[in-house]
């Protein structure tokens, strides 16, 4: 067995090696193209924010704030946290930069790393990436639907199949308090059968018991009262609007009355998008494997909570690593980025110098050009040119360097021709156009 190197990736964090970058780039390009079409603009916020922003914004009762934040104290004595999600930072930026004065709504997209101290398991990392959308300054159901539609379009464009949209309404501060009371009294009478975490949740945030993954809790939850039956008129109307619009654009969805999401700021609509697959377990049983690729919802009270004027908002985020894992698992192919069409080979010191200059001319002319200036043997250079599958190799040997010429070799036909060095870029442009 080879010895493990002394330094390794921190647990739950991963290098993104050059071979994986094209997946990241493909996903980001797809997300950006679609978000662009719908009028979203990119926003970047710092990776570190004040700890209080998350304890207030994400919410004190959430697992994220209770167990998963990377907190630090700076030399100046500030308490900062590595962002575990985008939403509070973007809302802070909206308030801080007075974006309420811009034409509303303001639509933002973001892409970048997030940090959560999670238990190590497949698909759960301590550093991961999201593509995130936020629309601030509009309260209608159409925005909720548009956000779901955009995420669904992105996943479809990436050729991911078996997608399931789950949706629910978790009401607002008009109707939720009464429902919470109903729920607490239901769970209290069954408290001893709940898991330890749920017994704690029952005190701090009883809604979270509804999405516990423990089987014994799920059995109790399946008989629990549902918030959909207790929504106030406004929330009921809003949710009806969302479902009608989803029907209108023929997006397939599933109502899940127990979907509550693990963040405190949500009001009204919440949703998740899963990929679902049948797999064989270790003991050969058919099992359904669900993977949450995306989650989001409306958060009408957060802007005010973080010190801004009232502004309704809605958003969601895609988990990039989970998407890439699925793309690889399902062997989804996409065209490779275009490689070089021309290769510069050189022989001798003077030729090397001329090639270096010629490479710059090709760059300015935007012709992708390969080289291996570090190699001196012509054979080795031509082997590289073959691997790159270029159309033409340009060779400058000692003679060519002295005469100010270059030898063009058509890699398909093997035909060779010598031309003036200063005509090389123009000639290549002409040939590559054909
Ligand atoms: P979230 O459900 O916590 O929502 O995360 C969204 C997605 O990020 C998840 O569906 C999952 O694909 C991915 N994800 C979350 N945690 C991890 C992890 N530890 N490792 C890998 N992937 C992960 C939010 O973050 C909200 N801020 C979304 C939102 C925006 N709501 C409104 N606006």
TrEMBL record:
<dbReference type="InterPro" id="IPR015807">
    <property type="entry name" value="His-tRNA-ligase"/>
</dbReference>
<feature type="binding site">
    <location>
        <position position="130"/>
    </location>
    <ligand>
        <name>L-histidine</name>
    </ligand>
</feature>
<keyword id="KW-0547">Nucleotide-binding</keyword>
<dbReference type="InterPro" id="IPR004154">
    <property type="entry name" value="Anticodon-bd"/>
</dbReference>
<dbReference type="Pfam" id="PF03129">
    <property type="entry name" value="HGTP_anticodon"/>
</dbReference>
<feature type="binding site">
    <location>
        <position position="134"/>
    </location>
    <ligand>
        <name>L-histidine</name>
    </ligand>
</feature>
<feature type="binding site">
    <location>
        <position position="261"/>
    </location>
    <ligand>
        <name>L-histidine</name>
    </ligand>
</feature>
<dbReference type="GO" id="GO:0005737">
    <property type="term" value="C:cytoplasm"/>
</dbReference>
<keyword id="KW-0030">Aminoacyl-tRNA synthetase</keyword>
<dbReference type="InterPro" id="IPR036621">
    <property type="entry name" value="Anticodon-bd_dom_sf"/>
</dbReference>
<comment type="similarity">
    <text>Belongs to the class-II aminoacyl-tRNA synthetase family.</text>
</comment>
<protein>
    <recommendedName>
        <fullName>Histidine--tRNA ligase</fullName>
        <ecNumber>6.1.1.21</ecNumber>
    </recommendedName>
</protein>
<dbReference type="InterPro" id="IPR045864">
    <property type="entry name" value="aa-tRNA-synth_II/BPL/LPL"/>
</dbReference>
<dbReference type="InterPro" id="IPR041715">
    <property type="entry name" value="HisRS-like_core"/>
</dbReference>
<dbReference type="Pfam" id="PF13393">
    <property type="entry name" value="tRNA-synt_His"/>
</dbReference>
<comment type="subunit">
    <text>Homodimer.</text>
</comment>
<dbReference type="InterPro" id="IPR006195">
    <property type="entry name" value="aa-tRNA-synth_II"/>
</dbReference>
<dbReference type="GO" id="GO:0004821">
    <property type="term" value="F:histidine-tRNA ligase activity"/>
</dbReference>
<feature type="binding site">
    <location>
        <position position="116"/>
    </location>
    <ligand>
        <name>L-histidine</name>
    </ligand>
</feature>
<keyword id="KW-0648">Protein biosynthesis</keyword>
<keyword id="KW-0067">ATP-binding</keyword>
<keyword id="KW-0436">Ligase</keyword>
<feature type="binding site">
    <location>
        <begin position="85"/>
        <end position="87"/>
    </location>
    <ligand>
        <name>L-histidine</name>
    </ligand>
</feature>
<dbReference type="GO" id="GO:0005524">
    <property type="term" value="F:ATP binding"/>
</dbReference>
<feature type="domain" description="Aminoacyl-transfer RNA synthetases class-II family profile">
    <location>
        <begin position="39"/>
        <end position="335"/>
    </location>
</feature>
<dbReference type="GO" id="GO:0006427">
    <property type="term" value="P:histidyl-tRNA aminoacylation"/>
</dbReference>
<dbReference type="InterPro" id="IPR004516">
    <property type="entry name" value="HisRS/HisZ"/>
</dbReference>
<feature type="binding site">
    <location>
        <begin position="265"/>
        <end position="266"/>
    </location>
    <ligand>
        <name>L-histidine</name>
    </ligand>
</feature>
<keyword id="KW-0963">Cytoplasm</keyword>
């Amino acid at each position: 067995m080879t010895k493990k190197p002394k330094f390794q990736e921190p647990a739950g964090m991963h290098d993104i090696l050059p071979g994986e970058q094209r997946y990241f780039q493909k996903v980001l390009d797809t997300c950006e193209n679609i978000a662009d079409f719908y009028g979203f603009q990119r926003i970047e916020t710092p990776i570190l924010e004040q700890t209080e922003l998350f304890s207030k914004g994400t919410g004190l009762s959430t697992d994220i704030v209770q167990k998963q934040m990377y907190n630090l104290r700076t030399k100046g004595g500030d308490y900062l946290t590595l962002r575990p999600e985008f939403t509070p930072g973007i809302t802070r930026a909206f308030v801080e930069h007075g974006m309420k004065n811009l034409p509303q709504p303001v639509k933002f997209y973001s892409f970048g790393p997030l940090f959560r101290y999670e238990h190590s398991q497949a698909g759960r990392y301590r550093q991961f990436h999201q593509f995130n959308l936020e629309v601030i300054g509009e309260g209608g159901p159409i925005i909720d639907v548009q956000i779901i539609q955009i995420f669904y379009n992105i996943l479809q464009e990436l050729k991911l199949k078996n997608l399931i949209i789950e949706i629910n309404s978790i009401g607002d501060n008009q109707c939720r308090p009464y429902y919470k009371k109903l729920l607490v009294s239901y769970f209290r009478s069954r408290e001893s059968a709940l898991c330890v975490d749920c017994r704690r949740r029952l005190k701090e945030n009883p809604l979270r018991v509804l999405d516990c993954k423990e089987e014994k809790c799920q059995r109790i939850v399946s008989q629990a009262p549902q918030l959909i039956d207790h929504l106030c008129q406004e929330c009921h109307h809003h949710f009806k609007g969302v479902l009608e619009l989803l029907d209108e654009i023929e997006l397939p969805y599933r109502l899940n009355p127990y979907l509550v999401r693990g963040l405190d700021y949500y009001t009204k609509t919440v949703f998740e998008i899963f990929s679902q697959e049948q797999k064989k377990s270790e003991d050969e049983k058919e099992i359904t494997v669900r993977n949450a690729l995306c989650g989001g919802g409306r958060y009408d009270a957060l802007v005010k909570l973080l010190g801004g004027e009232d502004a309704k908002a809605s958003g969601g985020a895609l988990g990039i690593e989970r998407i890439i894992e699925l793309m690889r698992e399902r062997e989804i192919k996409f065209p490779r980025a275009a490689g070089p069409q021309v290769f510069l080979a050189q022989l001798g010191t003077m030729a090397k110098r001329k090639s270096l200059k010629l490479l710059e001319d090709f760059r300015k002319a935007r012709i992708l050009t390969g080289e291996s200036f570090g190699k001196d043997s012509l054979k080795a250079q031509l082997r590289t040119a073959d691997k790159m599958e270029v159309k033409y190799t340009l060779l400058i040997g000692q003679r060519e360097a002295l005469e100010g010429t270059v030898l063009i070799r058509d890699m398909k036909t093997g035909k060779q021709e010598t031309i003036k060095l200063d005509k090389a870029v123009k000639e290549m442009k002409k040939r590559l156009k054909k």
